[in-house]
Design the sequence.
């Protein structure tokens, strides 16, 4: 089931209800059974997010090294509240994500499928600027341009 | 010291994340040796190595394997790569740096246990690592190391990389199995344990990434060579994830038992900015707090348990003198509230009340009597939840309250966080 939902989300960026119905038909289930599963997992979207999904980890290891300041900075740079999407539809900012396993490079964030570690306000500005200019950004060694070496 | 390393000794070798590069430094020799042995011989080596599970519970791996009922097939192997414990990032590191070492360990376990399918369940957030593993698995199939007739034998095994989709609870072995089956990832009642009735009702072993990554070494060099590292009670090495207020956060592989928290802290460059240590949390977000008085405790299962905590999944989060423990506890409680699967009431409701209360306390608007309520909520959760998630949602906060009662009390009715207020502006 999860791989089928991933295939849909990779195609559309979220899980449109028509696609959920198609998955249900393919797996010989009723749509509510598929919806019960998709709604359980935090990474499946029922609505289309911005082109880039920016998740800032605020769990302990990142919080101890300034994650709250990073989230506030990104909110100012993007001009959106936590959880909102920019007017141009380019970025969705999410600050309620749980530990992303990048504590060694805290504070860190994940944009789409790549991690960006050792964040400073300047580094955030550069990452956002690069994403604005030429999406998608090619991953560096740890997944981010100029990532940890 | 480098000779003591097991898991990370090949990190950084040129091209080692590819099959060719990994084989150039001796990769898959363990698997090649394994297929010339009997499963019983391999289980004996694993038992003599003393290897204990690295996912958190620390159960002896060889013993876990021997719970599989004889002659019941098909059997399945599930690889737990759902690492989501706050403060843990070793499995991601082991996959990023040495994906084929993990895959070789998976195949050795699969051969030993005679499983037909091995599923690597990797958390959804590790998308880049999932794609890396997909590529490595394809390389292994191409080279005859996976699939049909592996290495010219009559042994067949399919390896499937399966991505999760954002749920901490799927690191619990029965929730992982439910998730693999396409359900909401919620724990199952045990017994029956997965070894008897697991994935699709068949005998199943669930092992952690780090546990399996040790197998190529153990098979190639022998269980005794592995057990030479560390101590008799805690044999082998372990990768510890050091994070928080240290100069050099990162993963450090050290021998267990002979290394202390102080040694580990020194490896990470000590507490940052020349500050003093206030507290540390070993084992990941679930485990109890320790203080500076515990720095000389060895990284040994029993010694850490005697100190009132656990090595858990191998993390160490370091907190300096400026840290507010109420704030840290609030974030961890929020984590469990967010990740509670909702199956049982003590956890579903308890984490909600805990979270509400910790937010009031951190903001300085809770009354002293609410601290008693907090203890009451936690007492009604610990030991009364369906799975360990609910129990562990109380461990850090209650241990921090016991170690720093004055700090918790000072928040009551203060109107703000007194610790933050006392911090110099530059901090």
Sequence:
């Amino acid at each position: 089931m999860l791989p089928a939902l991933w295939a849909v989300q990779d195609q559309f960026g979220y899980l449109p209800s028509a696609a959920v119905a198609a998955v249900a038909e393919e797996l010989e289930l009723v749509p509510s059974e598929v919806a019960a599963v998709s709604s359980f997992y935090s990474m499946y979207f029922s609505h289309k997010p911005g082109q880039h999904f920016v998740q800032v980890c605020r769990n302990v290891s990142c919080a101890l090294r300034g994650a709250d300041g990073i989230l506030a900075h990104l909110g100012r740079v993007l001009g959106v509240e936590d959880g909102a999407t920019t007017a141009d539809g380019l970025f969705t900012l999410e600050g309620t994500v749980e530990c992303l396993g990048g504590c060694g490079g805290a504070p860190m964030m994940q944009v789409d499928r790549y991690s960006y570690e050792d964040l400073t306000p300047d580094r955030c500005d550069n990452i956002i600027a690069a994403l604005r200019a030429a999406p998608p950004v090619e991953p560096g060694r740890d997944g981010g341009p100029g990532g940890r070496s | 010291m480098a000779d003591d390393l097991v898991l990370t000794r090949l990190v950084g070798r040129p091209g080692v994340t590819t099959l060719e590069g990994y084989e150039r430094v001796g990769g898959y020799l363990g698997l090649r040796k394994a297929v010339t042995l009997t499963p019983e011989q391999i289980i004996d080596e694993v038992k003599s190595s003393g290897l204990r599970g690295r996912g958190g519970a620390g159960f002896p791996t060889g013993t876990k394997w021997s719970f599989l009922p004889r002659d019941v097939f098909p059997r399945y192997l599930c690889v737990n790569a759902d690492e989501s414990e706050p403060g843990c990032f070793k499995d991601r590191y082991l996959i990023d740096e040495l994906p084929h070492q993990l895959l070789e360990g998976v195949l050795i376990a699969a051969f030993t246990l005679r499983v037909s399918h091995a599923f690597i369940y990797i958390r959804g957030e590790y998308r880049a690592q999932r794609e890396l593993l997909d590529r490595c698995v394809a390389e292994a199939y191409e080279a005859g190391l996976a699939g049909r007739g592996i290495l010219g034998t009559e042994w067949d095994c399919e390896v499937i990389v399966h991505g999760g989709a954002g749920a901490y609870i799927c690191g619990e072995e029965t929730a992982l199995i439910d998730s693999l089956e396409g359900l909401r990832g919620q724990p199952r009642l045990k017994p029956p344990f997965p070894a008897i009735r697991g994935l699709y009702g068949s005998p199943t072993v669930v092992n952690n990434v780090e546990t399996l990554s040790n197998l190529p070494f153990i098979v190639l060099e022998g269980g005794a060579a592995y057990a030479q590292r560390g101590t008799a009670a805690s044999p082998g090495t372990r990768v510890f994830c050091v994070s928080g207020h240290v100069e050099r956060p990162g993963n450090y592989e050290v021998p267990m038992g002979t290394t202390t928290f102080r040694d580990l802290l020194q490896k990470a460059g000590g507490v940052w900015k020349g500050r003093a240590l206030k507290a540390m949390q070993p084992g990941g977000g679930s485990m109890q707090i320790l203080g500076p008085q515990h720095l000389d405790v060895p990284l040994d299962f029993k010694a850490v348990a005697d100190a009132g905590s656990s090595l858990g999944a191998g993390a160490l989060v370091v907190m300096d003198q400026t840290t507010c423990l109420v704030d840290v506890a609030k974030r961890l409680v929020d984590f469990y509230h967010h990740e509670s699967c909702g199956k049982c009431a003590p956890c579903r409701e308890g984490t909600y009340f805990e979270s509400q209360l910790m937010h009031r306390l951190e903001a300085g608007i809770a009354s002293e009597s609410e601290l008693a309520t907090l203890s009451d909520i936690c007492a009604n959760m610990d030991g009364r939840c369906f799975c360990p998630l609910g129990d562990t949602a109380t461990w850090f906060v209650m241990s921090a309250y016991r170690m720093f009662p004055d700090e918790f009390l000072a928040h009551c009715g203060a109107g703000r966080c007194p610790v933050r207020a006392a911090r110099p502006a530059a901090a």
User: Anything to note?
Assistant: Residues 137-149 of chain A have pLDDT under 50 and may be disordered. The interface with chain B takes residues 1-3, 5-6, 27, 36-37, 40-44, 58-61, 63-65, 96, 98-106, 110, 113-115, 139, 142-143 of chain A (CB under 8 Å). The longest helix of chain A spans residues 121-133. The helical segments of chain A are 2-12, 17-26, 31-38, 60-63, 67-78, 121-133.
